[in-house]
């Protein structure tokens, strides 16, 4: 799957950009979801597209230039589709792309163990009068299952090259490259894209595909028991399945905390040292306001945010393991019955889990749902999933205000709160958004994550975070500095005025007035919150902890965290919701509702705790 | 002839007919569930949850609601 998080560099280009960039020949990579397109694409182009063992989608179009033989060829990875004449969003996207821009040839990636299911798309694509190469992927799994296919015979029947491949292990790679090189060398440049009429008139092709496979594709009547079968007996156990799922999730968050926090402390100490040894002496002769802006504003804000890099890295490695293993489909299976009662389905739950990384890809991931109302309901709950930006804020408060023993549990309680709020929301809105979704999806075999991939993926996320830190977070921090230091002539600062003005709404939640400005700027990106707080209290990372523990007791801090968890998602998420729902009203509802809910929940908690004299 | 939804775990059956609206039938066909296909039920999730079935080498999660519309001929355990 393609991460199309807002922080990532624009690797996914729009149609027009792709059109403008066309030089030489252009190939499209097409196939069913989870066939291994992204793995193949990454191997071919050396990029790190997001790969996941979840029949989801390559969300934006990733394209890259590769040199094949003497020719520079542009390769575009399309979202996974079942059927060119299908009616899902992805199928519409692929039709639109094929009819909207010129492709000179197609590379079709199919799962060799499931040719019976995949070959229909191959047949349909072969009707388009475009040169194509078919890559029969997952040879390793075919062998394990004893599935055989006579690729030479298939090639003769299809009239196009059909090659074996294992994209993950690079099996048969030289032959694959040679076939692609030959394709690139031979194909003429097309003048016009495929006519939409051709696409619309395509027959289903089920019979034709079956006939083509007859006698050349052999699946044993009983498949051998694989690791997947054995692991499923355990993980999908009727009673133990769900508890084990909960334990697994808890382990991931505990591990993030236990592995990441010590590294964070080291880094924080290092950054403070840099400030004391380098910046302070270097700026000693600068005017006071400039010192304040650069040290208390920029450096403190940004360095506080930077200390989270190790934690994010650990977290994204673990998330990638879960995503790539195939366990997410099992989570959907386990949770579906529960989710149905809330008007959602198992996939909504998985999207909520994916939202733990970043809400934006999760919002885009709802495209696999066909029913618009189900999509909307799912989009309404995704922003409540604790994304990595909110995780930073929580980690900070939790490690500052709670003992080392209690901290991981408090963190866990926030994840529970996230699920509870999502459930409440679904329950509230399910009557307004009734639907009947024909849920059927693949449960892919368990697959071992590829180590290098895990690290490139996590590295990519960290890089995106650093880019965000150097733009949005920097700007936000400077803005907060300005609000907390102006007017310079004395009297209440703009931030104080703002805080006082908002006092009637903040006081019932026990949120300090100073923090109002951070919360407001945090709407842009929640990563700014912490940096903003460092600026507000005018202390570096290490000092911030001390100030916070003097200023806030745990009840007020927990109320602040609940508010941060629930209130308005960041701008990128709002934009994604607006784009995917194609409705300003729905986006406004999502924002307004979450703001109101955040206030209610935090107020209930704070007032309740105070009543109990906690 | 029974519906796939009534099949117990580990049973095998052959799909005979699909009594579902066109869009749902088309969707199922994309996963290999067509008249004539051999299916095997691996397990059924608790509380009326989905079925875990296999069609050829593909394993699927299938909503109970859809399974109810799939008519099958039992072939054994
Ligand atoms: N065993 C095996 N697994 C593979 C092979 N190629 C890819 N995979 C795995 O198959 C899963 C799906 O791969 P992706 O590359 O994400 O598939 P995709 O077709 O891009 O999927 P979407 O983006 O969801 O459409 C991942 O877990 C890969 O690691 C292979 O040759 N053998």
From TrEMBL, chain A:
Signal peptide: none annotated. It is found in: Cell inner membrane; Cell membrane. Keywords: Cell membrane, GTP-binding, Ion transport, Iron, Iron transport, Magnesium, Membrane, Metal-binding, Nucleotide-binding, Transmembrane, Transmembrane helix, Transport. It is a multi-pass membrane protein. The keyword Membrane applies. The chain crosses the membrane at residues 239-258, 302-322, 376-397, 409-429, 464-484, 515-540, 552-574, 586-606. GTP binds at residues 31-38, 56-60, 77-80, 137-140. One of its GO terms (molecular function) is metal ion binding. Residues 24-186 form the FeoB-type G domain. It holds the Pfam family FeoB_N. Its main location: membrane. Mg(2+) binds at residues 42, 45-46. One of its GO terms (cellular component) is plasma membrane. NCBIfam families: feoB. Belongs to the TRAFAC class TrmE-Era-EngA-EngB-Septin-like GTPase superfamily. FeoB GTPase (TC 9.A.8) family. Probable transporter of a GTP-driven Fe(2+) uptake system. This is Ferrous iron transport protein B. The lineage of its organism: Bacteria, Pseudomonadati, Pseudomonadota, Betaproteobacteria, Neisseriales.
UniProtKB/TrEMBL annotation, chain B:
Gene3D superfamilies: 2.30.30.90. GO terms for molecular function: transition metal ion binding. The keyword Oxidoreductase does not apply. The keyword Iron applies. SUPFAM superfamilies: C-terminal domain of transcriptional repressors (SSF50037). Keywords: Iron. PANTHER family: FE(2+) TRANSPORT PROTEIN A (PTHR42954:SF2). This is Ferrous iron transport protein A. It comes from Rivihabitans pingtungensis.
